[in-house]
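Lecture 7 notes: from sequence to structure.

We start with a single chain of 403 residues. Read the sequence below before looking at the structure.
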Amino acid sequence: MAYQSAYVFARLGSGERRLAGIITCEPPLAEFVYSKEWLAEPEAYPLDPVNLPLVNRTFRTQNPKGTFGVFTDAGPDDWGTRIMLMHHNSSPQNEVERLLRTSGGGVGLLEFSLSRSYPRNPTELPGIELLDELAAVAQKVQEHEPLTPEQLALIEPGSSMGGARPKVVVTDGASQWLVKFSREQDLLDIPALEHLTMALLREAGIRVPAIAIRTLGAGRSAYLIERFDRMAGQPLHFVSANSLFNTSRLRRVRDSRKNPYSYVNLATILRKHSSEPVTDCRELFTRMVCNILLGNTDDHARNHAMVCSVNDRQWRLAPVYDVLPTLGGVRGHQAMGVGTLGADATPENARTLCKLFYLSDTEAQSEIDRLRGLIATLPERAVKAGMAAGEIHMLEGVLNVNA
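Now the structure, written as tokens:
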């Protein structure tokens, strides 16, 4: 019989685990109740400021996964699920079982257990010096080759981070790094392109974690980004914009002011819950315009988030992650609503509702012009990074700087 309930643990600023509540899933329905201990804790924070405010009541939701999005955020996505299934003889029968199997391995600070006393300790992460060996194991997984128990034990820790690309989490002793590998079907050097793009976003004034690029064997590379949710002395609770939106189906609404799945709705949430609403909304506008100009149409709501500093319980827009030009996809529309013309991928559409991001029309146009010039330098940077002429040509065809 499948487990339907689990205890949810969160961390305080001291790093101490505390029982935050109980999640019960009977798909498509789910319930969550905060524990009395968490409600009485002076340093407690809501696990989701929009859908799970810190009050004593039973919260209910209904969606295909049968749970609240903030808990799904802490579980594995495509790649992590693939690794999980290689390790177990049976598939999890529901979301609770999936979260129990990968507790502590996903993004953020949440952990799950069948015991109300404590969750199991996550498996120790591999060291960064094992990166070449990890890349070889990840390649075997992509080629559907069986792994030895030792290889599976090596790659499983940290594999529960979201996303479909092959990835691992490693440690250098001081920090944790998410490492993304290339794939056989990649049209160009995706790790190198993501590294270049993120460096460009930092120049644009967007908050980018520490990043690095590593050359591996056989002409491949790996992209590294420091985990901003696990930085020493500054643990961050994570909830994706997708979870904040809490909509299980996309609504076809042209005007983004009426579309819950939009940058505008995320700006509305930031205005209400961020400790720095003006700064965060302005940065969100910059990110939105950069995605348009980059031709990044994979800017769905799981690629945006808010984080809560558990030290002072302040919410902010999360540092940027998972941004690069989308190759081979459908162009012309962003994944989320942009302006009065819906998801149309034009800077002019972004400017139509700029006031909701604390920008005047003049300020918005000035920012668009600045970013257009910056994004246009990406092909030149790719040449200097050693990307091939064919790759550069493909990249130039994706960029939307002339929109």
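The radius of gyration is 21 Å. Keep this in mind for problem set 3.
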